Amino acid sequence: MIGYVLRRLAVAVIVVIGIAIFTFLLLHWLQPSPVYAVLGPKAQPAAVAVWNRQHGYDRSELAQMISYLGKLAHLNFGYSYKLDQSVGALFNENAGRSAYLTGAALVLSLIVAMPLGIWQAVKRNSVGDYAATTLNFVLYSMPSFFLGLILIQIFALDLNIFPPTVSDSITTAGQAFTHPLQLTLPILTLAGINIASFSRYMRSSALDNLAQDYIRLARAKGLSERAVLFRHLLRNACLPMITLTGLSIPTLLAGNLLIEVLFNFPGLGLLFYNALGNSDYNILLAYTVLGGVLTVLGNLAADVAVTVADPRVRLA
User: N or C: fewer beta carbons within 10 Å in the chain?
Assistant: First the structure.
């Protein structure tokens, strides 16, 4: 197990370095220097040359890339010239709120999707199963921002239950706990799409396990249906959900981008969106590298968690 984790971590470092190099070269090709985003599009050539020389953008592309990778190894993500603040400080300021939004949506998705999937498997081919399947397909095929717009129209504008956007008063992750109404629609929007996906996987896994011999044996021994479902079926049927949860972590980061922009939620997604409009070079690089790190760590966490949950699985 330890050897496997160490090998995967070594591969993860190589993958993250590759993502950083590719993203750096792509952005450098699109915009060799952020000087015009800082000084303005009408900056004089002399001022441009001085600024590039002061900030190292007059060096070769290879030298700039090596310098960036060296800073990245020391967790130095550069400086945001537009916001006049280090990228690391900006990420520390916004990461907690994004993590809260992602974690709340993920927990809500699992709480709803797992029992829903088992119920659909038990009631397969019934009217309730068909209705839930239809709703799941509709949600699964719907873009998250479109679902958010529907929820805003119904619950914020028509019924006036929840606010349509997040208040500027939420400036820290801790304040998110004290403003539940502010975050209800963003969490429901982000969780809605995941519930549709998770419940489909859970239903399929539960159907496979209901046909297994150990379920027949448990019923033949006279166990109640509740004991069969929650003592025997649930543990085995939720194994694919562990993998799916790990793989969904980077997807939730991408979903956060759309949801945070839609609801004006002050997190990493909104920070990236604003940086995209302002051509904030280093924020774009850091956010992309973070997505690569979460993808690699999500896969690794899923593999290890499946091994812990199911001793029959051995990592080689």
Answer: C
pTM: 0.81
Model pLDDT for residues 134-157, shown as the tens digit of each residue:
998 898 888 888 998 999 999 989
Domains of the chain: 101-279 (1.10.3720.10)
Mean pLDDT of the chain: 83
Tell me the per-residue pLDDT of 226-238, one tens digit each, with 9 for 90 and over: 888 887 788 788 8
Please choose, from the candidates 115, 119, 108, the residue with its C-alpha nearest in 3D space to the C-alpha of residue 245.
108
Contacts of 67 (CB under 8 A, 6+ apart): 56, 59
CA distances in angstroms from 197 to 4, 132, 210, 248, 297, listed in the order given: 30, 12, 20, 10, 21
- Number of CB atoms found within 10 A of residue 176's CB: 23
Report the alpha-carbon distance of residue 293 to residue 99 in Å, rounded. Answer: 15
**Closest to 103 (Cα-Cα) out of 176, 170, 163:** 176
Q: Give the span between the Cα atoms of 225 and 241, in whole angstroms.
A: 22
